[in-house]
Design goal:
Elements (H helix, E strand, L loop, with lengths): L2 E5 L4 E4 L2 E6 L2 E4 L5 E5 L3 E4 L24 E7 L3 E2 L4 E5 L6 E4 L8 E6 L9 E4 L13 E3 L5 E8 L3 E8 L9 E4 L2 E5 L2 E6 L3 E8 L9 E7 L18 E3 L22 E2 L4 E5 L20 E3 L2 E3 L73 E2 L2 E2 L7 E3 L6 E3 L64 E7 L2
Parallel strand pairs: 1-5, 4-6, 7-9, 8-10, 9-11, 10-12
Antiparallel strand pairs: 2-3, 3-4, 11-14, 12-13, 14-15, 16-19, 17-18, 18-30, 19-23, 20-21, 20-22, 20-30, 23-24, 24-25, 26-27, 28-29
Amino acid sequence: MTSKIKVDNINKVSDDSTIIKKCGSTTTVGSGSGQTIVVDGATVTLGRCGGAVNLASGATQTGFGRTGTVDWDTTPKTATFTAVSGDGFFCNTTSGGFTANLPAGVAGAIVSFADYAGTWQTNNLTVSPNGSDKIGNVNSNVILSTEGQSVTFIFVDSTQGWINTMDSTSNVRGSTHILASGGTESTTGNFKIHKFTGPGTFTVSNAGIGTPCAPSNVDYLVVAGGGAGGGRYGGGGGAGGWRASSGTTSGSYCAGPGPLTSPVSALPISAQAYPIAVGGGGAGVPDCNNPGGTGSVSTFSTVSSAGGGGGGGQGANGVAGGSGGGGSWNPGSGGTGGSGNTPPVTPPQGTSGGQGHGPMSPFATAGGGGATENGQNAVPSPPTAGRGGAGATSSICGSPISYSGGGGGSGEGAHGVTAGAGSPCGSGTAGSSSNTPASSGAANRGGGGGAAYYPGPSSVSGTGGSGVVIIRYKFQ
């Protein structure tokens, strides 16, 4: 028979090895078993400092209440079941939705549910009250349909029934897609874009799992700085090298028309920091016979695009580069264009500059090469300066933008020679005549600068346009 000890302002009672000791307003219950202890008007401490108080097998507790939490059952539920008060349940609806039946409502009962696989938005979890019990004052089912949701219900009374006290929709999970930062970031649909207009770092924190739905590679466009036009009777500047993937990994956008004579794969990536270099345009030159400045290299990972070659100055050939600079006017046979795709890559990153005119007046020079077309030759009759070669168009940012056009050659306007136009596709700019100054390439488009004529305001050549690096991938 279980004994019962009542303690009321006593110092010490011992029964069946149970020790109760009162010190002031605190009563301590020591070792013992099989006892029911009632203490009036005192604080009761069970066990000792640093020890544990355990319920015997099959025993239950009442009167202590709960802290608002549950004990989680870590075996996921995959079919209809009846919940138990005091427990939380991970519900896996991957194969289809099902129902969680609530237990009979008793004041203080508590139950939690969590979306195990992040699939409730597709296959819902239905929460059903017991009998005439209510959920939020209504005797009807509740549909949980938010991805990653977790919900806690507590039964309050017969009026309101089960009330939702905690609800999380943060869905904190490891991403299966690429996570990265750097540059100017934007999105289009399910794809994220990082645009670098200057040096920076593309930092990958998660590389994706490498499936068609969550690839671990990125599409890219890497454009180098364009070359400047040549000084005094110089040729047009060559375009910065244009290198790009075919665009099939991240949305099948239009990557051309361009020098993509065969498909170019997207780049595989890993979780690391990738330094980005964006080439500046070549510097223009004043009234002199010097060639225009060559553009600088742009790089991302294993892809490097060469700067455009400067246009040749009087009597000189164009400079080789991503695309070559145009040839100058030459008292001899006219300067030749610089070679494009230098150093060579496949598919080619650019083309060669055109051939300048010589030996006599009218003075006419050649256009610089573009990404997809050679710079045009100077034509003696009718006297015409060469146009810059066409560039390439890409929709990697969501809409078509042209890059890497060649700069136009210069012409003797006083003798009816029209200055060479910039490229018809791309950002190469017009050369000068004896009446007009040369134009410079637009920033971050990689176009060649226009050639200089002589003298006066037309005697300074146009600078090349700076380059750009753009990275695109599937992020959701």
